[in-house]
Amino acid sequence: MNTIVTALGTARARRLRAALTVLLATAAAVGAPFYFAPFQVFQLTMVLLYAVALAGLNLLVGFGGQISLGHGAFFAAGAYTAAVMLDRYGTGHLATLPAAAAGCFLLGLGFGVPALRLRGLYLALVTLSFAVFLPPLLKRLEPVTGGSMGLTVDKLRPPAWSGLAEDQWTYFVVLAVTTVALLCARNLLRSRAGRALRAVRDNESAAEVMGVRLSLHKTLAFAWSAMFAGVAGCLYTWVIGFVSPDSFGFVLSITLLAGLVVGGLASLYGPLLGAAFVMYVPSVSQDLSEAAPGVVFGLLIITVMFVAPTGLAGLPGRVLAAVARRRPRATAAPPGPAPGTGSAPEAEPGPEAGSGALTTLTPPGPAVVDAEPVGAPPRTEKE
User: Fold this and answer.
1) H or E stretch including 108?
2) Range(s) of the domain holding residue 11
């Protein structure tokens, strides 16, 4: 019974901490655009849209156990889908979001089928080739994509009733889409499909024996991952208002994968931390060394991975574990006296306990050959 009460108390405390954390995070997210400058609000907006892309990559790499070095290509596909719809067809901004998500889902589904027979470095090489050849292809499709000059589209405009500036309105729209995307990723991982995906990652043979269809879930992992990347690319078009093939080189794919690893694989908070790393670390590297920002960026990645091998999301747990190991252990009760040391043992009540008399117990020692009974008269010399 005590165990059940303790468990209920622990669960209630855990829920209370989670609710408090969500409340504080919501207050900070809502109040941020009113506190920071417009450029800083723009940076926070970019962090949010990168978090959507990393959440999709986390489904594939962190929870699916596969690897992709071509995630920037799906990001570019979503961005160009939104840009073409806005520039060529004059649709509204909100109409581009489901189109980019659906188009990238089908693209990932088609790409995931031939990738079923590949794994490890071979799969990484194939996905990297996809990220390498897409920018030249976009340049060739000049009547649709604008070629090397790219496309310039309108940014989000705040409605009159909102009373918000353009950067603030864009931030809140991207925040809403990011929140929905992260909740969808969380619910997906807690569903039957998410559990099957993790089973495939842990042991493919055991998962297949349990009835999990490997081909189906591996293909769906690519499709989901591409869909999230397409949504992030659509948000990128809304925020920047300009797309060009040079903005989506294979370096973007490498940066996204590095951000996910630094943030924390198979973690629900890892994409947010990794997105902050992708957004702020290159700018910090540029400020520290204008001649070689890539060197500073690489050294920062090495430093973070040395300090937190499991990513920034696992760093608090490592710190708490280290503090717990350094705590002094509770002092144990002093041991009783060893036999034969001569220390007096405890007293026990004798036969006359009612009168308060106590008899001292003698510790076991060597046997006495000529012992006298208690209360016997003294012996004489004749005896």
Assistant:
1) helix 93-112
2) 1-30
